[in-house]
Fold these 3 entries.
Entry 1:
Amino acid sequence: MNDSKPVVLVTGASKGIGLGIARVFADKGYRVAIAARHLEQAQAAADSLETEALGLAADVTDRASLEAAVNAVQAKFGQLDVLCANAGIFPSADLETMTEDDWDLVINTNLKGMFNTVQAALPVLKASQCGRIVVTSSITGPVTGFPGWSHYGASKAGQLGFVRTASIELAKYGITVNAVMPGNIITEGLEGMGEDYLRQMAASIPLKRLGRVEDIGHAAVFFASPEASYITGQTLIVDGGQILPESLEAVG
């Protein structure tokens, strides 16, 4: 890494978990590039950070737009040290009525989009003295299931398979690859469900609260830190203990 402040690129970071990740990196002294499908939203998010930041338009299903975004990061900051592959969607569709287009949209965004993002960033990450890749997966799919999310669960479980092999292949460049697996995190989407819904969800979690987007950000920053330099191919569940109880009676 150069003597200047390290640089992180976070995809899907104009709001929600992605913006929370970006804020924590900014608070830790990183220079931050925010990528989102809409430039205005990406730039507004970048402007909200108390660090040198850049907003970029990029669609993870469009390889050319990702390559352009990485080139813009290189032109602006001269380096890229951390990639947070966070962009994802979670539309609901029951298996019996799910269309092939429904399936393809989620898989192409969440799973193939992660692949596109990592490949686009690799040439610049390889030049860093301590490259890091952090994938935002989920407990849904790898550990739990939820009706309407069979395509989402498949995409998130697939990400972990990618992480395990990519970590082996990229170790020769000193790049680590790890994944954060969020549970129920308060985002704009969840807040729109209303207070009763939020209280019901929190009641099933041992810590009796939903997670904050910053909770995921802190996990990502740990994986990016020098203290995590000997950790690769691993996952970290951040869910307040949600997956632990056998039943609601165990929560108390």
Entry 2:
Amino acid sequence: MKQKFNIIKSTCVPLPLENIDTDQIIPARFLKATDKQGFGDNLFRDWRYDKNNQPIKDFVLNDPKYGGCILVAGRNFGSGSSREHAAWAIAGYGFRVVISSFFADIHKNNELNNFVLPVVVSEGFLKRLFDSISDNPKMTVTVDLPHQTVINEATGEQESFEINGYKKHCLMNGLDDVDFLVQNRKCVEAYEARRK
């Protein structure tokens, strides 16, 4: 899942529902594993499949007209429990970016820790983005992490987004927290030596 992040241009998967919680993202019965592998198969499991494990045709992830590595979701994405498995499922499915007008804080950080970029946009930008995808499912969005901008390519509308400088550095360099510490080992050792 560790991938350097720079600029991504992709079609989108729209999920215009508010208050999508982590139990909807990955149901609790799939939390037994401690390895990140395979969680993408069960992303939105209860919305994707019926009780006989048959795909629900009307659900967006089962609709062949939608695809790409950007999920566009309604306000308050990732609320509920703090399970990191929800971010594992999003990353495991292949999403690199989630765009919403608001994220639950813990889930937002879990996404960042799993190399998924949560992009917070205004309500108006999000609505127009949903409209653009509805008009043309093949339209693209460009997410530029170095410049912290997101562009609706259908309309040309652009908006800036915020990101913690440390997390931005880690995403752009493909580093998790441990990698960052190892990369800066000499600085850490010098600091510890000065404190003795």
Entry 3:
Amino acid sequence: MDALGPIAVVAGGGRLPAQVIRAAELSGREVITIAIKGEADASLSAFDPVVLGWGQIGKLFDTIHQAGAKEVVLIGSVTRRPDFTSIVGDLGTMRRLPRILSALVGGDDSLLVRVMGIFEREGLRVIGAHELAPELLASGGVMAGPYPDDQDNLAVKLGVEAVRMLGALDIGQAAIAVGTRVVAVEGAEGTDAMLVRCRDLRENGRVRAKGRAGVLVKCAKPDQDLRVDLPTVGPDTVRRAQAAQLKGIAVEAGRVLISDREETLAVCNELGIFLLGIEARAKEPTP
């Protein structure tokens, strides 16, 4: 990675894009911030972003090329997949329209790979947020909170197996296990909504356990391209886990991002919820 050249950051929602941009600037990179209209967080205003809608793909690439950037990071949440009416726009968009429409077909993984392909055909190198800000990656072992007990470790193991199956089907990146039972899996609604659903299940007695019990497990998909859509947890994840009466959160070390890391660890310690970095990938068989 060219440490001196400018880099473009195309930012969706959440606070993570601002943290990645700040890390890039601290490393000496010039950053061109492009905020997706209707998605990007207000925290990006500190970086004087160019705000572009889905119908301004031509202007997006013009902005990147005019700045001399050869690398781009795609980071942040996108709550709605754009439809045809939202992407009809400038001439540059219309010229690329067949490739854009092709990218909108398929599951999340195929969508992201095709979107990266559009950038690569423009002569740009797509790099992962973790390459700019490796300090955001989860480390191994207990990062905050109490140590998990044997029952917690059993739930972690079960949750990992569930997430592997979800990832293989391109469904989600997270599951919740209580004891020997998987009580919730992540779908299109995302992790936060799954945690709210789990809270409701505990409150209405559909999931019965004495006191706090269970673990949220979050991992990258088995064959995930780490340049985009790395799973993320942050302080709000911890608070929702507390509301769902969970004991802890287990994330894949080196393949999950910790947003607002200091705050996240502090909230874990305050609420008594463990944050555990685990090895979740299946080991290759010995030849």
